[in-house]
Amino acid sequence: MTTRTVDTTQELAAFLRTRRERLDPLDFGLPARRQARRTPGLRREEVAELAGVSVDYVVRLEQGRGLRPSADVVEALAGALRLAPGERAYLFDLTRQRPRNADKLATTAAPPLARLVADLSPLPAMLMNHRYDILAWNAEMARLLIDFGTLPPAQRNAMWLCLMHPRIREFYVDRERVVREGIAHLRAAWAAHPEDQALTDFITEFTAGDEEFARLWAERDIKVNGRGRKVMRHPEVGEIAVQFEVLMPLEDPDQRLVIHRAADEESQLALDRLCAG
Fold first, then answer.
1. Of 28, 78, 113, 191, whose CB is crowded by the most CB atoms within 10 A?
2. Whose CA is closest to 245, among 258, 232, 255?
3. CA 104 to CA 75: how far, in whole Å?
4. Domain ranges within the chain, ordered by starting residue
């Protein structure tokens, strides 16, 4: 069955349960007599006490019974569950407590940003939106990854390429981590953009048709990477290690500028050979 919109009530319930179950009671200094547990993590009454709400309230939230917590309660729950910054933002998105950008979702590159992508040569650079659609790229990025211009528009998506394209599937040395982090980003984007039907359809399709995606999606990890390191197996020049940086323009906050730089001297030499070819 196709989900037409984000079911935030059920997602909030599942997210709260999984985060509660991941907590280690020992980290909270709970008395030893309270350590014999049949299920992992903290009990609901312990979370309720930490957050300053009733146990019944936590139970109703975790059962998806239609509550909409206030911003103060959301903040208290985030603190009680010791959520990381990305997870905290996700919780606020699910409870509709953050102001939203009402602008139209980005499906084409803003012209000034497209020019900037070209001007960043010889650094490989590209422009994406929140769902990983690739909106613009320069020649160096096309040489490093793939010539996006040869692909149908529907396939110009970094997650689709990593999951489905026969060459890109084997492109990353640490593929599991790359896919896991990409899915964790998509989950955050999904909560922040419930009106984006294309993103919902994409997630529904891959949850139903790709075992790896479905497994990682069910873990409900939330992580929005602004920078990091990837090692690539390039068919022409061998392994290339890159550092990437993701920038969000103030004028176009739904677009993300991704810039790659060589992580070491050997990788720089490989990039130079690749881009000179």
1. 191
2. 258
3. 29
4. 8-94, 111-276
* 111-276: CATH topology: Beta-Lactamase (3.30.450)
Amino acid at 205: E
User: What HEC string does 86-118 produce?
Assistant: HHHHHHHHHCCCCCCCCCCCCCCCCHHHHHHHH
- Considering only residues 76 and 251, tell me which one the structure prediction assigns the higher pLDDT: 76
Gap between the terminal Cα atoms of the chain? 48
Contacts 24+ apart (CB under 8 A), 68-77: 68/95, 68/96, 69/95, 69/97, 70/97, 71/97, 76/51, 76/52, 77/16, 77/47, 77/51, 77/53
Tell me the pLDDT tens digit for each residue of 206-252: 999 899 999 999 999 998 878 999 999 999 999 999 999 999 998 88
